[in-house]
Amino acid sequence: MSEPVCQCGDVPFRVGRTWNPERIRGDFPVLNQTVRGRPLVYLDNAATSQKPSAVIQAVCAYYGTCNANVHRAFHYLAAEATRRYEEVRRAATTFLGAASPREIVFTRGTTEAINLVAAGWARRHLRPGEAIVVTEMEHHSNLVPWQLAAAATGARLRFVPVTSRGELDLEALDRHLADGAARVVAVTHASNVLGTVNPVAEIARRAHAAGAVCVVDGAQSAPHLPVSVQEIGCDFYACSGHKMYGPTGVGILYGRSALLEETDPLLGGGEMIERVELEYSTWAEIPHRFEAGTPNISAVIGLGTALDYLESLGRPAIAECEGRLTRYALDLLRATPGLRVFGDAPERVGVISFEVEGVHPHDLAQFLDTEGIATRAGHLCCQPLMRRLGVPAVSRASLALYNLPEEMNRLVDAIGRAREYFRRGA
Amino acid sequence: MELDDLYQEVLLDHYRHPRGAAPVSDRELVMEEVNPACGDHLRLAFELRDGHVVQVRHESRGCAISIASASIMAAFVEGRTPAEIRAAADGVIAMMRGESDLPADGPEDLAALAGVRQFPMRIKCATMCWHAMKAALDRQDA
Predict the structure, then answer these.
(1) Domains of chain B, with CATH numbers?
(2) Is the per-residue pLDDT at A303 higher than 60?
(3) Which residues of B touch A378 (CB under 8 A)?
(4) Is A381 an active-site residue?
(5) Region for residue B101 given its phi and psi (left: phi exceeds 0; alpha: psi -120 to 50; beta: otherwise)
């Protein structure tokens, strides 16, 4: 195997530093360990990313210095907790390029965010005979909520197929939009299997031209690409904190304010009301209408620190360095005998699914684990896409900003040993 | 926890050369079992002749453990009675759950699956075919 060449050294930080992989890795304490006697190689970032010390400390600092419920009491701690919580809403507004903090709803994650749109907006607006357009490459979290909405309203689902390159067939999208029946187009920004980055701005434009709203699943794009919901022009955009170096249990739903105003809350209770009578209630203003009960305050505060961390590295720099590492990994994997990479889209993130001849994905993941390499195997919550690819399961390596070319070499070397290992008995 | 405990030579031999593996047509199919969590897929066929299970065939798609387990099962059940097979299935499932030791008169090569018990995520891979076999016998009774 050739020596790794990291080409990231010349990308300037926004804050004037240069990209320093060792320094970045030092920010993530979990990476500094051996697993099964080898330095950990963590390549399951599409499932969840690791957390920098700053995020872990922010969560601790909240509990250690200002733990209180938000938006309620008049005492100092409550005011401080509320201030930090709402500061994150403003940071998220900037991070996603939204027009106003009123358009930022904190949820438990992407799944809850999409369910809020499907149950709160779509069920209220869809009529029998209308259509919801989704795609074959959706994660179950951007498919099942629409199945539920369709069942509840009598709307029909229409599916945009995936081409052999792993891209969406936009001509099929146009056919689905042609009769004007579509009210929703729900699409992932970046595929959690193929890594494909979809042209969501163009899809949003076509959806709007046909009278539909556009819902974008940003779980795999927000951590890796500069995102501006206003530039995309989408109506809703959902992402998860834990996939972008923040804590678990928090996500963001962006919704255009006019659409959030006509969205029903999923949960009723404290904090989401304005006036409560015994027989009826009026709701709080958006976005508080959608945040019933005590929210995951510590996770929101940790997410704020994660957003700061990403901005401090510079999101264009992140995208550029991850892009180089992705190309390096793809070149290595494609040159590996008996290995086939799924998808070949030119616009992509560092999510790479593949199969290895003679080694089932679960057996491969088990083998790689014994060398301290964490990957994912299975249907990846995309059973319809697995059927489209003609496989029951795939292996997946997904990259993050702290991964190194050396780690790609270790992955490929280990895959070679796995092939030998499972050749025993042949 | 050693990988060789999981993937023993005997297990890999069953994986590479599964006993009783053959295409199973829809007409022959007695039981189909899918583990949607991992995509493992088993199609099982056999006949009951004079109170004995014969002509056992399975069409398996899955990991090395699931295929080896189906192979070990197919070799064992051929020519046995449903009662013997049910008892063996219960013994294998209990062993895989760690509730009992390796059964003394259980399927040949079953010891090759003993290492799977150290890998809780993989136990279902080994037991799915036995659950399918029991369900198939129940269906034949019905």
Answers:
(1) 3-141 (3.90.1010.10)
(2) yes
(3) 37-39
(4) yes
(5) beta
